[in-house]
């Protein structure tokens, strides 16, 4: 197991009467991170109580996945993807545009990349 700080934090924030699911991804994700997040994510999705979920994924401190975690991420996307309206990916990683394109194959909503936080929030609530 990696000794670096890693994981996914989840919060729900209301902005302009829109409930936004915030995911803060830190470090290099491992399989155990996904095992821990499933129940917290399901609980947060119930809190949103919406058929059209809007998500902000902050990857400013993200450094990648271990191989099993890539598969876990894919399965998680398939599980919740049909209810997603928009996903804003906030960060300046060179590969995030590719991730957004691939992600669009597996979710019902739209994914866009943003280099700044305010622009990502504005797009989600518009």
Give a nutshell description of this structure.
This protein has four helices and five strands, in the order ββαβαβαβα.
List the keywords.
126 residues, 5-stranded mixed β-sheet, alpha/beta, single chain, 39% helix
Characterization of this structure:
α1 (31-48) runs parallel beside α2. The protein contains four helices and five strands. Strands 1-2-3-4-5 form a five-stranded mixed sheet, sandwiched between helices. A hairpin with a 2-residue loop joins β1 and β2 (18-29). It is α/β, with parallel strands linked by helices and 126 residues long.
The overall pLDDT, averaged over residues, is: 81
Widest beta sheet: strand line-up: 1-2-3-4-5
- Total DSSP E strands: 5
Specify the oligomeric state: single chain
Estimate the global geometry from the Cα principal axes. globular
Which regions have little confidence, pLDDT < 50, spanning 5+ residues? none
Distance between the termini: 41 Å
**Share in helix:** 25-40%
Radius of gyration computed on alpha carbons: 14 Å
Largest sheet: 5 strands, mixed
The secondary structure category is alpha/beta
Q: How much of the sequence is in beta strands?
A: 35-45%
SSE pattern, N- to C-terminal: EEHEHEHEH
Secondary structure tally, helices: 4
């Amino acid at each position: 197991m990696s000794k670096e700080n890693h994981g996914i934090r989840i919060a729900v924030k209301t902005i302009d009467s829109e409930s936004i699911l915030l995911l803060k991804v830190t470090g290099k994700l491992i399989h155990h991170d996904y095992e821990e997040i499933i129940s917290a994510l399901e609980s947060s999705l119930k809190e949103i109580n919406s058929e059209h979920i809007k998500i902000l994924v902050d990857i400013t401190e993200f450094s990648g996945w271990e191989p099993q975690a890539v598969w876990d991420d894919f399965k998680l996307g398939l599980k919740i993807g049909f209810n997603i309206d928009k996903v804003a990916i906030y960060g300046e990683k060179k590969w995030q545009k590719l991730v957004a394109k691939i992600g669009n194959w597996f979710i019902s909503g739209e994914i866009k990349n943003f280099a700044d936080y305010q622009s990502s929030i504005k797009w989600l609530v518009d």
